[in-house]
Amino acid sequence: SAINMLKQTLSGQKKKKIAVMTSGGDSPGMNAAVRAVVRTGIHFGCDVFAVYEGYEGLLRGGEYLKKMAWEDVRGWLSEGGTLIGTARSMEFKKREGRKQAAGNLIEQGIDALVVCGGDGSLTGADLFRHEWPSLVEDLVKDGRFTEEQVTPYRNLKIVGLVGSIDNDMSGTDSTIGAYSALERICEMVDYIDATAKSHSRAFVVEVMGRHCGWLALMAGIATGADYIFIPERAVPHGQWQDELKEVCQRHRAKGRRNNTIIVAEGAIDDQLNPVTCEDVKNVLIELGLDTKVTILGHVQRGGTAVAHDRWLATLQGVDAVKAILEMTPETPSPLIGILENKIIRMPLVESVKLTQSVAAAIESKNFDKAISLRDTEFIELYENFLSTTVKDDGSEMLPVTERLNIGIVHVGAPSAALNAATRAATLYCLSHGHTPIAIMNGFSGLIQTGEVKKMEWIDVENWHNLGGSEIGTNRSVAAEDLGTIAYYFQKIKLDGLIILGGFEGFKSLKQLRDGRSQHPIFNIPMTLIPSTISNNVPGTEYSLGVDTCLNALVKYTDDIKQSASATRRRVFVVEVQGGHSGYIASFTGLITGAVSIYTPEDKINLSSIQEDLTLLEENFRHDQGENRNGKILIRNEQASSVYSTELIANLISESCHGRFGVRTAIPGHAQQGGVPSSKDRVVASRFAVKCIKFIEQWNKNNQAPGTNTDSKILRFKFDAQGEKVPTIEHEDDSAAVICVNGSSISFKPIAGLWENETNVELRKGQEVHWTEYNKISDILSGRMKLRDEV
Ligand code: ATP
């Protein structure tokens, strides 16, 4: 394997010494990154040093450069902030300071540095690398080292990880800490919402982001805000006040009892005047609204990292070490980023330059450019936000002939964000003149009662953060009675359908598509938004509700671990859901530092349990004094018909002869999560709008809506500029699942998915897209090391 090849190349070379540091503002997930770098480095036979207190520590050297042992980072996944400290250092901005730092590194034999920080820290790091050879020359001239001493350290390797709550780095979808900060913001705004509604108040909430509106935008979408102020899209000077008033009044007139306005710290108008919370408040008071201001401040930085950030930091930390080991003196310094679901490397300098050009664009009042420099997701979501709130004044209404009847149905067990997706779909439909029609209580609801509901604006008020399913869901599939379903589809003149559901939803889409020959009404475009905590919908790596579930599991295991640590030497076998798909188990194991992960994909046997036992013994042997931690083993509910959760616990308990206590823990339905996570809310809104656009596209196929029950071929599409581009998508492509694969999002036809990618019997996809997680877990839990030693 690639890992073994790397190891082979490394053996026989001088021992590689790597340093890792955190710099700039702290962000949740930094500790997970440091843990991953330390353990991966040790795994590959390197010495890993932690630099304490950022660049300040690099300058001071000595005890600020601490060689890390495997055990030193135990328990770090669940700690907020950065445990190795961070500091701003003026000295490092001077050449003299950097020379000093270079000397300290060479003294320890270190010539590779992983820096986790914002664009300032990374700019400093890259400068340091470029200057390094000349700094080394100077150190020799100064007499600190001899030529001979510095010969092995002529080049410095730098790898950047972006640790920043602002999510302000160009080229990467999210930075370590951004989703944690967003989650905190949404929690706080949810609290504020409750009191605002009680008193019928308006709340103006300031969030962080000096040059970047990501937090404000995402929070705006996730909390159902009326209006947002972001630096990239400055509001028109002297005019924004009227627009703000109009929007708030309009929403009140539609029945809203409160208003939420999110203001980014760096919000400005197009004359570059800051727009402050007070300014906004004064405008709302003029409207006669009882208005309060909340400045969230540092709560946004605090707390433990959400599942997404632990995962991101862990995978990126591992990749940072690999990048160091693969680099040559000619390789440009890489920055580890992420696109959709894929960890990527990109040239650090270019990303930093691009990031800084956003600030420059804002300063020169070129706001179109500023926003165009953000990633596509940002722009897309910004437009969605406008479409669903600011522009719900009729300005985006389509011509009457293009207005559609769009059905929405929930199928299967409820997962988080079903309501958020339905809300976004409803609002987008309404502002475009479509009629959103909720099919109540799943397909069997329709079959039995024919109940549907034309959704109004006020119906979905509050749905952004509501768990469960407000329109009702049901496990039954469409095949129960296709004829009756066709009858009602015809009756309500559906032009398109959005299904939200897991494997039953997937099956239903297939059944409807197969029913087309018998029931022409099913020729309408139909989509599935995979929504299930099991993440077992074939063809995609992401399902709505998974993020909420993972957050719930992270919290659950953190709590359990704490209890286990307090009682000393305790092991918990935690049983998680997922059906025949081990995704949730593998992911949870990876981000909670589980000693072992049992999934349906990897069979459990006596020797693997024996290995767990040895690993546990090993863990406890090193776990002395303050470092005592509870241990977690994760077992998927269907991992084995023989080795039940109870049996595994008993086997370990029996074989350890009382040296540690073993318990089982089953979170059960708590895994569905109560309130949807901020990430799920945002994805829900993004996917819902994408599905409506998909339906619009198919209906624009030169035919009047409602009449096009004939076989359809989509002859053209509209590209981003609104230009018609020819395409040859056939009828089958109009029944599709919205899928995330690596760095791309696409609509995959259900027919092909069913044929080629589905394991019908086990209700999951053929492909296991997360095998990498298990390999990394094995490295970071020490299992690999153990195997190597044996
Ligand atoms: P955040 O996004 O949280 O502000 P940041 O990394 O951008 O993080 P900065 O305060 O800009 O935070 O930078 C952190 C440290 O990095 C500085 O205190 C300084 O030591 C170093 N640094 C920043 N810019 C440079 C530079 N141009 N040259 C050398 N060092 C720099």
Structural write-up:
- This protein is an alpha/beta fold.
- 42% of the residues lie in helices and 17% in strands.
- It has 26 helices and 27 strands.
- The strands form 6 sheets. Strands 12, 13, 14, 15, 16, 17, 24 and 25 form an 8-stranded mixed beta sheet that branches.
- Helix 3 crosses helix 4.
- The structure holds adenosine-5'-triphosphate.
- Adenosine-5'-triphosphate is lined by residues 23-25, 55, 88-89, 92-93, 117-121, 123-124, 127, 164.
- Low-pLDDT stretches: 702-711
Rg computed from alpha carbons, rounded to a whole number of angstroms: 28 Å
Oligomeric assembly: single chain
Estimate the global geometry from the Cα principal axes: globular
Q: Main beta sheet: strand number and arrangement?
A: 8 strands, mixed
Terminal CA distance: 19 Å
Q: Could you say which small molecules are bound to this protein? A: adenosine-5'-triphosphate
The chain-level structural class is alpha/beta
Q: Could you tell me the mean pLDDT? A: 91
Number of helices: 26
